[in-house]
Amino acid sequence: MAYKPLDSISITDIINLGIPELTATQLHLKLTEIIKIYGPATPQTWTHISTRILDPGLPFLFHQMMFYGCYLDFGPDPPAWLPDLEDAKSTNIGNLLERQGKKFLGPSYKDPISSYHAFQEFSVSNLEVFWKTILDEMNVSFSVPPNRILVDDPSEESQLLHPGGQWLPGAYVNPAKNCLNLNGKRKSSDIAVIWRDEGDDESPVNKMTFEKLRSEVWLVAYALEKLGLEKGSAIAIDMPMDVKSVVIYLAIVLAGYVVVSIADSFAASEISTRLALSKAKAIFTQDLIIRGDRSIPLYSRVVDAGSPLAIVIPTKGSGFSMNLRDGDISWLDFLEQAKSYKNVEFVAVERSVESFSNILFSSGTTGEPKAIPWTYATPFKAGADGWCHMDIRKGDVVAWPTNLGWMMGPWLVYASLLNGASIALYNGSPLTTGFAKFVQDAKVTMLGVIPSIVRAWRTKNCTAGYDWSTIRCFGSTGEASNVDEYLWLMGRARYKPIIEYCGGTEIGGGFITGSLLQPQCLSAFSTPSLGSSLFILGTDGIPIPPNVPGIGELALNPLMFGASSTLLNANHYDVYFKGMPSWNGKVLRRHGDVFERTIRGYYRAHGRADDTMNLGGIKVSSVEIERVCNAVDDRILETAAIGLTPPGGGPENLVIAVVFKDANASTPELNSLKQSLNRALQKNLNPLFKVSDVVPLASLPRTATN
Fold first, then answer.
1. Per-residue pLDDT tens for 196-248?
2. Which residues are in the AMP-dependent synthetase/ligase domain (predicted)?
3. What contacts 24+ positions apart, CB below 8 Å, involve 163-169?
4. Closest by alpha carbon to 392, among 463, 448, 452?
């Protein structure tokens, strides 16, 4: 569509978008007033248009007319949102800088917006000061305080053993206890969790206070001890993310055990792999997953995976639709063992900060997932990112459709509860009007998304008619986003900012993000996260100079609070450091994404540098997909799985290139083959995976080394 400059748009142009004449006349009058004051093509013009003219009820074509008309000659990276100084001062970081900015930055400190970039650089060059400050601001409580914040021994031996340094040495802490502590951030009557079940969309939202959450977590922790497992034992959770799974998660950590995170969408073989890698001694699951009119078996998959002892939660009522395996126990029988401890405080098991709190999994390039332990420090990285970048604080309501099997599930727990906010959980599909209504009724203030969800919302128009005005900001992670889809998303909440956020399971949070103290550009990152620095490697493998535009594989400063230092099934140093260049005497940490720094200083993600792809926010190796596809039809010789970015940007589509054994023989009908591939992938890997296209080839292109 060709767009006009704002001062060339007529009332007729607006009417032609389907807007009634009277409304079009009023809109044009407001537009003319704004142009008189701010000009036809400035960021301030767009800010006033987006906040004074546009609303969710107007056709999105009109929103596009305004945005693209304003920035017609602006060039790359037009800002979709500008920070307001008074609002910036009231954010967590803005408030901190107003109190201590001159202490950190000296007389050069001006205000939170002007001095944010300098503070980000300060946070990297003064890691101990920065992290002590943030942990203090978050009221983190240690039973034994650390000797210091960071030890970074420059000796060659130490750099091989601890290239990321040693964080909080000597400390003993329990992150779940910190989520439940009553302090300046929370009192017992504050709301900890808000939820609603799909199908109950006309009912009031359910609420659980911190007093009730504490009581329920304590009871489960006592019941866990009745199982007789050794402290530090791994206990899996494979169930939807609802109020019970949050209680179970916190109880496992509070009692000194290790959570094993398994997504509820996984097939039995994938569950089995994760149970074996983690050496889990027990697993929490439920009988079924209810989605609309469908009942999806879950317990049976756990049984097929050969799981250890299962504690099984009934989806509805107290009975099951199937018999439990010998040795497995129901949720009610599990709790019955600890009934005498009801409302008795459980004394948290404080463990060394190097101890494991959670084992999560990320796709490996060999087909076996990487088993990544989070230590007792990692939850505070998640909480700090929420505090620093999403500005999560007491009184906020945080919703992010996810699962405890992915890092954003534990992240949501810690980023919310450590900062005194409420977790908002919808027990159903986030792609429905029911979810949109829940966001309205729960009065969500920070809504996290992945781009695939936003695309579905826009396609189905399922947010129409719902009031999302309580949202202060959005968060987005998991995959690359699309500019038009995210312009549409901002418009649902009267142009609140979207904080793009990228990190990794092995980091416990983000290394690059947006900020409420900087102008935000659509589908782009504005800054390395506080305490992190990143490098873009040139074609020669050497980092290009900081602040210089360029594109290449991303590398990270290894000194990252909360980041992994070991893997359960691979050599951590070989995976993340071997063969990487050095910068100022430190071997950089490998990440695997390709990033671009633009001429205006923003960053954009360009997919993976290895053979890992991102499907609907789930990272998966092409090797895993190809292994399944190769076995679908006897006529297939080999396949290649390709993640293809759509022309307009956004989530990757899965394309399968197929080579048949006999090029002259009859080949399967491609639509039928695509359906067979989808069935196999959804059964053996993940029901969310979907092949968009099948391409037959005579042979796969290969390098000289095959």
1. 999 999 999 999 999 999 999 999 999 999 999 999 999 999 999 999 999 99
2. 186-554
3. 163/558, 163/573, 163/577, 163/586, 163/587, 163/589, 164/558, 164/559, 164/560, 164/563, 164/565, 164/589, 165/558, 165/559, 167/131, 167/353, 167/377, 167/561, 167/562, 168/353, 168/377, 169/353
4. 448
CB neighbour burial string for 156-170, b if at least 16 within 10 angstroms, e if fewer: eeebeeebbbbbbee
CA distances from 288 to 79, 295, 427, 574 (A): 45, 6, 13, 40
**Joined tokens for residue 15:** 């009417």
The tens digit of pLDDT for each residue in 526-580 reads 999 999 999 999 988 999 998 899 999 999 999 999 999 999 999 999 999 999 9
Residues in the chain: 706
Residue 406 to residue 277: CA distance in whole angstroms: 16
pLDDT tens digits for range 574-627? 999 999 999 988 999 999 888 999 999 999 998 777 667 777 667 676 767 887
Token code pair at residue 450: 């992945």
Distance CA 562, CA 694 (A): 41
- Gap between the Cα atoms of 649 and 646, Å rounded: 5
Q: What is the CA radius of gyration of the chain?
A: 26
Locate 87 and state its tokens: 């609002």
State the Cα–Cα distance between residues 32 and 221, nearest whole angstrom: 63
CB 65, CB 13: distance < 8 Å:
yes
pLDDT over 60 at 496, yes or no: yes
Distance CA 145, CA 173 (A): 8
Helices first, then strands: H and E counts in the chain: 23, 35
Tell how far CA 465 is from the center of its chain.
27
Q: Residues with Cβ < 8 Å from 238, sequence gap 6 or more? A: 262, 263, 264, 266, 271, 283, 284, 285, 298, 302, 405
Cross-strand pairs, 186: 183
Are 595 and 536 a contacting pair, CB within 8 Å?
A: yes
